[in-house]
Write a structure and sequence with these properties.
The complex is a heterodimer of chains A (about 160) and B (about 350). Chain A has about 160 residues and is mainly α. Chain A is built from nine helices and no strands. By secondary structure, chain B is mostly helical. In chain B, helix 6 packs parallel to helix 11 and helix 7 packs antiparallel against helix 12. The chains are: A mainly alpha (about 160), B mainly alpha (about 350). At the A-B interface, helix 1, helix 2, helix 5, helix 6 and helix 7 of A face helix 1, helix 3 and helix 4 of B.
Chain lengths: ~160, ~350
């Protein structure tokens, strides 16, 4: 839960506080767990919603939606992904750049990538946490990977331009 | 990529989310398509890279301590179960003792015996509940009903076993089905609710559900202690002054001393004399109900503190308080066996 909170809030102290409060919330709400989903999915949903509340309080704004321009660029990449993330990493891209690209993604894409690659949740549990369908999870994950590739390309172009 | 339509399937395959039929179809395609196979390798490498980049960070060491410090102090489940069992038995004993007081028994002995039984027997049953709690359903109602059913089955099984060991007695189907079920269910519900209250505390706003948790078991208890066809009346034990020695019997019939059944709400005193009644034992579980002597109102006896009278009263109260299903048929041979079995 701390890992989820850290990736969502990007601040260690805020993440520790959020994880602590989420744990206590889970403890008090134990009686509400009815077994319709895995216990992990139930826990992470509570933690995820709690982190969303923190983000809203912090920004006083809803989730950053994917802009139309970003959406169009993502669709172009999805149609022809070009170099893969792995290719970029093989050439000259460090993990740090990958994390930088990740941090610059819209919230919706970051969250779905965290749930899959940080928490290793199956699609069914991700759907419960995000309160969307499994097909929507698949689509959002696909777009998130494409957006990540796009962002890494942009970062690479920025670096080459700067140099 | 030659087959872009396979991209989604390949990505799902890498994530382990592709259903079996689609997976088999994709694997068959990959055997023939080098382009898709290269994309598969790329997708795998990408997923591995993302896992490395987004690996979960270790939480600070102080986080666990900070969480624990804010958790309410909880007693361990077995101890909590024992406390809940004592409380539940005290509640049930209070009902029985109060009614027994009205029947003219020694109040001090009655209360002390009820307390002792509640602490020891209730504690043991509650301890068993606390140990079994992790395996029980989460619902208070389900826990209570299940545990009550187990108590009832265990008690009756023990009685049947002891009865069989002590000479082939058997209980009527009526007793097996009805005897003690009401009380055991009430006890189970009470115990389950008290166990939950000890863990979570009394709800700030109890609501209907919490009220039902408390009222329903007590209502069931009230049904049980009322004389009637559902619960029947508790059977008083034979008095020591009567010929209580076990009578050797054949397999068909036996004669045992039996006391008149006295409804708990009656004002008659504990009988000081017994009447022998012949009870026919049946060897099959589906026996017809055994006729017992009708209630014989006797003159109220003054309280007595003679050792014999006290012992009689203790036995009676211990039996009543211990035995949720106190509707014991008269075919049980010895009082000591009954008390021992119900105590176990």
């Amino acid at each position: 839960m701390y890992g989820l909170a850290l990736r969502m809030l990007r601040h260690p102290e805020d993440a520790a506080d959020a994880a602590q409060e989420a744990f206590l919330h889970c403890y008090r709400a134990l009686d509400t767990y009815n077994g319709s989903h895995t216990f992990g999915a139930w826990l992470y949903r509570i933690a995820y919603n709690h982190c969303l509340d923190v983000l809203r309080r912090r920004r006083n704004a809803p989730l950053v939606p994917v802009s139309a321009e970003q959406g169009e660029r993502v669709m172009e990449v999805a149609a022809d992904p070009g170099p893969s993330v792995e290719d970029l990493a093989a050439k000259d891209v460090s993990l740090e750049r990958l994390r930088e690209a990740f941090d610059n993604l819209p919230d919706q894409y970051r969250h779905v990538l965290v749930l899959r690659y940080t928490l290793d949740l199956p699609y069914r549990d991700m759907a419960h946490v995000l309160d969307i369908s499994e097909s929507a999870v698949t689509m959002r994950l696909h777009h998130a990977r494409g957006a990540l590739r796009t962002r890494m390309i942009e970062l690479g172009e920025d670096e080459r331009g700067a140099s | 990529m030659e087959h872009p339509e396979q991209r989604d399937a390949i990505e799902a395959y890498v994530e382990g989310m592709l259903p079996l039929p689609a997976r088999q179809q994709l694997e068959s395609h990959l055997e023939r398509c080098a382009s898709c196979t290269r994309y598969l390798d790329t997708a795998r490498a990408e997923a591995d890279l993302l896992r490395r980049a987004l690996a979960p960070a270790a939480p600070p060491r102080s986080l666990a301590a900070a969480v624990s410090a804010q958790l309410p102090a909880r007693r361990r489940a077995p101890l909590r179960g024992a406390l809940a069992g004592i409380a539940a038995n005290l509640l049930t004993a209070a009902v029985l003792v109060s009614l027994s007081l009205g029947a003219g028994v020694n109040p001090t002995v009655t209360i002390l015996a009820g307390l002792a039984v509640a602490v020891v027997w209730g504690g043991l049953k509650g301890l068993a509940f606390g140990l079994a709690a992790p395996a029980l359903p989460r619902s208070v109602w389900a826990q209570g009903l299940l545990f009550g059913a187990v108590l009832w089955l265990a008690a009756n099984a023990a009685l049947v076993a002891v009865g069989a060991l002590s000479g082939g007695t058997a209980y009527s189907a009526g007793f097996v089905l009805a005897g003690g079920a009401v009380h055991d269910v009430a006890y189970g519900l009470l115990l389950s609710w008290l166990f939950r209250v000890l863990r979570n505390g009394v709800p700030a706003r109890p609501g209907l559900s919490a009220a039902l948790h408390a009222v329903v078991p007590l209502a069931l208890l009230a049904v049980w202690v009322m004389p009637g066809p559902v619960a029947g009346a508790p059977v008083r034990l034979p008095q020591p002054t009567a010929s209580a020695e076990p009578v050797p019997t054949d397999s068909a019939t036996t004669t045992v001393p039996a006391t008149p059944t006295v409804p708990p709400s009656a004002t008659a005193a504990v009988p000081t004399a017994t009447a022998l009644s012949t009870v026919t034992l049946l060897s099959t579980p589906a026996a017809t109900p055994v006729p017992t002597a009708p209630p014989v109102p006797t003159a109220r006896a003054a309280h007595t503190s003679s050792p014999l009278a006290v012992r009689q009263q203790v036995h009676t109260i211990v039996h009543d308080a211990l035995a949720p299903s106190a509707h014991l048929p008269a075919r049980v041979r010895t009082r000591s066996v009954v008390v021992l079995v119900r105590f176990l």
